[in-house]
Amino acid sequence: MTKESMISQLRKRGLKVTPQRLAIIDVLMEQGNSHPGASLIYKKAKKKRKSLSLSTTYATLNEFSRHGIIKTLQFDKMEDRYDRNLEEHINLICERCKKILDYNVPFIVDPKRVVKKTGFSITDARLEYYGLCRECREEERSIKG
Amino acid sequence: MTKESMISQLRKRGLKVTPQRLAIIDVLMEQGNSHPGASLIYKKAKKKRKSLSLSTTYATLNEFSRHGIIKTLQFDKMEDRYDRNLEEHINLICERCKKILDYNVPFIVDPKRVVKKTGFSITDARLEYYGLCRECREEERSIKG
DNA sequence: ATTTCTGCAAATCATTTGCATATCT
DNA sequence: AGATATGCAAATGATTTGCAGAAAT
How far is the C-alpha of A124 from the C-alpha of B128, rounded, in Å? Predict the structure, then answer.
């Protein structure tokens, strides 16, 4: 997403375009695919808008995420990270420097290929599917009719 | 893992077999594959050992996890969950009731098959590989020789 | 004029830490 | 005895909340 498309997303959805939000968008753009966390985004964006508060930063990132403008990534023992890359991709998380690399392929992929293509050596993997279990699906069905 | 094998793991590793730990192990066994969190484990284990504290519960679960006796699972906006199932498997997380089901197949699997076999309907997936990025690998190499 | 945002301080939740005491081996 | 574990209270870190004033449409 470009800065302009982010801004037009805000307009389209009746969200206000404030200097704080613009500062955060700029940081998001500058950070590329480094998947910054709220604290870094706050620190960088505050340089552009001195009045910016941390809670506004959170509110903004939540709002963007809720509207699908960015994606919130949650990991083990780390603050949440925010991702501009909305395509289906694998996150390669470095356990040492906490860098998160994108590998833009759909989910079903051979780990050996990842190493070969990216130089990232895998020591652990986690696959999680989110959704509804059979029981909850049946309950939802009977509630909604 | 059975209760007995857990206890012998403790002995093997020089960890002490205390009543608190036994209470926690019992809860772990009773909970089967429900992947309880620390708060539930604490609540249940405290019934068996009235003196048990929450911090001991955490210390114990951390110790068990560090020694590979259980596995710590971390998810979005939920407390950590603990898993007795040490085999490679997929976690199916119900977004509604927070139940976590195991599907005992290796990671590379077709989501459609999951639905067919388990009745769990997938709305979102996350795949994460942990390890070392190329740069960190090179750094480690040059440090260690 | 309204609706939505912002910034502050305080609250929350899960988890960890420091430390003196108690308990295992 | 010596090592490790326990329980308490306080600290931590990330994130959220309540709310009054400020800014965007």
Answer: 8
Q: How far is the C-alpha of A47 from the C-alpha of A139, rounded, in Å?
A: 50
Number of Cβ within 10 Å of residue B101's Cβ equals: 20
Contact B5, B88 (CB under 8 A): no
Task: Please give the full DSSP string across chain A, using - where no structure is assigned.
Answer: --HHHHHHHHHHTT----HHHHHHHHHHHHTTTS--BHHHHHHHHHHHSTT--HHHHHHHHHHHHHTTSSEEE--TTS--EEE---S--EEEEETTT--EEEE-S-S---HHHHHHHH-PEEEEEEEEEEEE-HHHHHHHHHHH-
Nearest CA in chain B to A109: B108
Burial of A74 (0-12, 13-18, 19+ CB in 10 A): middle
Tokens 């998160």, located at residue: A100
DSSP state at residue B120:
P
Which residue lies nearest D25, CA-to-C1' measured?
A: A16
Task: Dump pLDDT digits (tens) for B15-61.
Answer: 999 999 999 999 999 998 889 999 999 999 999 999 999 999 999 99
Contacts of B142 (CB under 8 A, 6+ apart): none
Q: State pTM to two decimals.
A: 0.82
- Domains of chain B, with CATH numbers? 3-81 (1.10.10.10), 87-144 (3.30.1490.190)
By C-alpha distance, the chain B residue nearest A89 is B127
Rg (CA), chain A: 18
Q: Which bases of strand C sit closer than 7 A to a protein CB?
A: 4-10, 13-18, 23-25
